[in-house]
From TrEMBL:
Name of this protein: Maltose phosphorylase
Start and end residues of each Glycoside hydrolase family 65 N-terminal domain: 16-266
Listed NCBIfam families: PRK13807.1 (NF010380)
Domain Glycoside hydrolase family 65 C-terminal: 688-749
Positions contributing to substrate binding: 357-358, 591-592
GO molecular function: alpha,alpha-trehalose phosphorylase activity; carbohydrate binding; hydrolase activity, hydrolyzing O-glycosyl compounds
Similarity section: Belongs to the glycosyl hydrolase 65 family.
Amino acid sequence: MIQRLFEIDEWKLKSKQVEKDAKRLQESLTSLGNGYMGMRGNFEERYSGDTHQGTYIAGVWYPDKTRVGWWKNGYPDYFGKVINALNFIGIDVTIDGETLDLFVDETADFALELDMETGILRRRFQVKKNGKSFLVETERFLSIVKQELCLIRYHVTALDAEAEIVLTPYVDGNVTNEDANYDEMFWLEVAQDATENKATIVTKTIENNFDIPRFTIAASMENRTENAKESTAEAKKLYVENKYRFQVAKGETAKLEKRVAVATSRDYAEHELAGASEQFLANVAELNYEALRKEHAEAWQTRWQKADVLISGDDSAQQGIRFNIFQLFATYYGEDARLNIGPKGFTGEKYGGATYWDTEAFALPLYLSLADKEVSRNLLQYRHDQLDGAKVNAGKIGMKGALYPMVTFTGIECHNEWEITFEEIHRNGAIAHAIYNYTNYTGDTTYLVNDGIDVLTEISRFWADRVHMSERLDKYMIHGVTGPNEYDNNVSNNWYTNYIATWTLRYTIESLQQITPAKREELQITDAEIDHWQDIIDNMYFPYDEKWQIFVQHDTFLDKELRSTDTLTDADKPINQNWSWDKILRSCFIKQADVLQGIYTFGDEFDFETKQRNFEFYEPLTVHESSLSPAVHTVLAAEIGREDKAVELYNRTARLDLDNYNNDTEDGLHITSMAGSWIAIVQGFAGMRTFNGRLAFAPFLPKTWDKYAFKINYRDRLIEVTVTAKTVSIALLSGEALELDLFGEAVQLVDTLEKHDYHK
């Protein structure tokens, strides 16, 4: 059942009420970020009701204690988690001595608006205090031009009588994580100072037992007012404030502009931090609020000019795709190769870690098409830089080569569920496939031959050690794994895992032909090792059922009681919130694409009938309780002609968070899976494929849409695709002419190519 809090609008999220019963959901959906930092959509003033106050700084984390009842050799030493940082947006408000609190106070004409086109969050409402009426107007943004900077404008207008208004902007380090194992406070004070109109606080993470460097953060604020009668400053433990008293007549406004700059020990020595954050503010002292907002909005416009997807005829679908692209770009835009895309971004703490395989499997295709290729290359470089950590992970379970982590900040695994951490090893293949995807899409082989081959070789060594030979069948097998469907654990011969392992070995052998003898010697590759890899490729076991003529998810999957999801009642769904784990594991229900993940990823290796048979068998068993699931199914449904099913699943991936499909968005947004809505349109509806270095399209138009259009970067070209009921138009906006396939026919793209009255 969907839960929709905001109006349908092409460019905005708009609400007319304080969602007291769904405040956390409202906060998640109005989160802001700029790649460097971000926060949930918390109100600036105090709110005494249920809320999740959250501010997060990219790359700042803590190694929390691994808490397990029965320790097993190989477990990670710690559970890495994003930690809630300084609350620097706070502004206490009192009116005639009464505190403004929107959980208690009734409001009129309340309006909350997230403008996705410009990356600005606004509120406006009327409130009564002591029988007097006041208008409150707020505006906040995190600059994507000057990423250390947050700006807040806060106005309170007396509508019908004079009043005393006190505005107290503050920075508060008394914050905790909701999901901490031991309810610990993660921050200690290093320094603080408050003077007239300015204040700075420096905090440092508490000691840890794992030889992990501690993080230090400095936040400095500067406050500007026009007509304050009195101002004071105060500093106390983990807290600094400036306080302004206004005496306003009827029709007058108490005005505050709060500027905050943040610096971290990722970039500065601890003793330099306070000076660095204060210098950030000094650097923009001559720029007024309007100038800073203008450059920020213009920078968002530049991003949208390349990345926007236009949908006519369905405003709900339009809002969904723009919301998802906005939140992805607010989380990551490739400026810092040390960073990656966290599954919750800056919107919550769940899942803890900074990096999952979601990045390579789902986010990378979007960034390849919508941003400069250096952004995608940074994502690959992130993994290469952590290769040593991946080797440590493999060694902990007695394996050669590299096992990339399920969850990580440094390359070392920091997730503590055995069936995920050391059984869901298919993620290793996603890392390898990302190298292929980048090379194939951009035509740039420099990363592959210089750095990528290091990663491929070590992953291949892991696969070669992880398989075993079945003497009974004379086939290689992989036992004790969890596939993408996490509702099946510790299985033997997950088809997808076996397939992507084999593909990785094959791709590595092919790639080795392109490197220099010196590089080959550096990798210590031998002919005997390659021969062993080839033997695995030639003799891998893949479970297959002759009756159904399908790839079998794992060895015993067809022995389950098979029933479709339409037999589930409303009381059952979602099953991950209503069933015991034991019942889920014994059921046939699939969390997300598993066999179909492989058929999607390697779509050029399977014919139409194979795709159709497997889709028709597995999709009815799939509950789509992973945010990653709908996109893959959308692409395959479109390819086999199930256009209505493709549209249904697109709507689910596009509005997964906006409509709270899985009843879990209050914990934070599903950032990495948001790329799925773009994949659903571009690879699903438009049928874009890039196999073997050749671009292809086979579009259709959803029945409820009038038109859609998008742009992609492809091999130093900018291409725009427009699809209407009767016409497919492909325009070359910049770059050299290109031969591509349209509905299976080779065509030359020189300027603008149109196909009229097309039929699939």
